[in-house]
Amino acid sequence: MQLLSSSILTPFIIGASLLLTACSGGGSSDSTSSSDPDDSSSSPQWVAGQFASYSTLAEQCSVPLTQQLWLRSWSNDTYLWYDEIIDRDPAPYSVAEYFELLKTDELSDTGNLKDNFHFSMSTEEWESLNGSGASVGYGMSLSLRNASSGVTRLVTVAYNEPNTPASDANVSRGAIIIAVDGVSVEDANDTDSIAILNAGLFPSISGKQTEFIVRDLDSQTDRTVTLTADTVVSTPVQNTRTIDTANGKVGYLQFNSHIATAEKGLYDAITTLSNAQVDDLVLDIRYNGGGLLALASQLGYMIAGDEATNNHIFERTSFNDKYSTINPVTGEALTPMPFYPESIGFNTSLLRSGLSLPTLNLKRVFVLTTPGTCSASEALMNALRGIDIEVIQLGDTTCGKPYGFYPTDNCDTTYFTIQFKGVNDKGFGEYSDGFVPSTNPTVDSEVPGCVLADDFEHALGDTNERLLSAALFYRDNNSCPATATAVARAPARNTFVDPGFMLQDIRNQNVLKNNRILTPSALEQ
Questions:
Q1: Same domain, 351 and 476
Q2: Which residues of the chain have pLDDT under 50?
Q3: GO cellular component annotations, sorted alphabetically (predicted)?
Q4: Are residues 359 and 289 in the same domain?
Q5: Count of CB atoms situated within 10 Å of the CB of 324
Q6: N or C: which end of the chain has fewer CB within 10 A?
């Protein structure tokens, strides 16, 4: 399955003042840039193996070739695997098509593509997401299962956001989308039908009305609801609660995205659990595709506490071999990211900077995961394991992304290309095929825990929900419940059985959430 969001519920965000635009950068050649971008006779030209400094090519938007050459030089300078990019003449391609080619086609040691996280989006859309996670949609996150041999195509609501069109219409977890504007989800197999599904499930403009036939959880009948797309602001931290057990108190926290507004949500949630004096924590990050590494660092500190994190790093990042000691984006010396013990103030209207963070001082944490658990969420797991906090994983293998980037704008488009990788305090960071729950771990990417399928038949935070129930069982028995079983790994991102089925919107939205972001240097010291 692929977890999607009709409102891009798990974007990765940095504060507006931290956006990187028209970054200067390296590379050199005999090529020169025109002082008049409309003068094609003196505009820069593609010469195989020669790369102008991308700072001289930035924001020259009237000539597509110059935009392409900016992308080419920027990629050659900052892309992690720059030497695996084929240096193609951009002439036959549009700007968007050319960017898609500026990445490695090499495979990992296990035969998977090395880079599944290369994409772009309009800067306007990026800025609308920035800070608050605001985007157009209905407020429901969807799990998609594509049709294959003997398997029916299925669209299920994974969760919804509070006070949104979906929640107001009681379209909640476990509901199955049967039809969209009269088109059957199961049976659609032509271009026009697929287009209707795309337009309905993933609206691009506020005010669009879509008719859905849904079958609610535990219902034998279908109902028709009309949802009107609106600007939805995601709530990244939800369902904070304390579970009383015979062996003490267990905190539960649903954390959906490392976006800027999550800082206040996490601060409040951990404060609540600390005041309740919980003995253990179940961290539900099954739908958390990543975002700000600094937030992951803060959460790691809040879980582990000062003593466990003192004199340890959260993550050490490295760039390509052109920049062994210098960050190519900020130009500053590379320094490890610590466990942040104070608030940063990503959104000062919610939480000011400099506040001491609350702590739980735990020696272990139970994490609930799916293939939608990605990037900064994986970095959090890796960092805690790096300081000997026991991590117990319940669910499915995570997405596998020990990489990240700085969003970079040029000519009203923001580009995302892999620029760095990270390792924990022990130097481990090779989990490109994901963290795998295992009853008998034998390699560092295998984590003690249980393989379990996501359970759409219970609400998140319900102690009867399969993953949370397994965590509570494991806590008491140090073993997996009988419900644990083998789960097939979800298909690689952007690989689908049905050609064209929601492909463009999947690329634009599912990939969008699966990333980590480093904030510029002021927040990295």
A1: yes
A2: 1-40, 486-525
A3: outer membrane-bounded periplasmic space
A4: yes
A5: 9
A6: C
How far apart CA 109 and CA 94 sit, in angstroms, is 32
Question: What distance in Å separates the CA atoms of residue 318 and residue 171, rounded to the nearest whole number?
Answer: 44
Residue 98 pLDDT: 98
Burial code (b: 16+ CB inside 10 Å, e: under 16) for 350-377 equals bbeeeeebbbbebebbbbbbbbbbbbbb
pLDDT tens digits for range 318-376: 999 999 999 999 899 999 999 999 999 988 888 999 999 999 999 999 999 999 999 99
Write down the pLDDT at residue 495: 26
Domain for residue 484, yes or no?
Answer: yes
Q: How big is the chain by its Cα radius of gyration, in Å?
A: 23
Please write down the long-range contacts of 91-94, taking CB distance under 8 Å and 24 or more positions apart: 91/46, 91/65, 93/68, 94/64
Residues 283 and 332 in one domain: yes
Residues counted in the chain: 525
Compute the distance between CA of residue 37 and CA of residue 60 in angstroms, rounded to an integer.
6
The Cα–Cα gap between 514 and 10 comes to: 8
For residues 327 and 397, state if they share a domain: yes
Q: Rounded to an integer, what distance in angstroms lies between the CA atom of residue 479 and that of residue 219? A: 34
Same domain? 53 vs 33: yes
| Distance in angstroms (rounded) separating the CA atoms of residues 105 and 142 | 29
**Does residue 503 come out as left (phi exceeding 0), alpha (psi in the -120 to 50 range) or beta?**
alpha
Task: Look up tokens 């296990």; give the residue.
Answer: 110
- pLDDT value of residue 130: 57
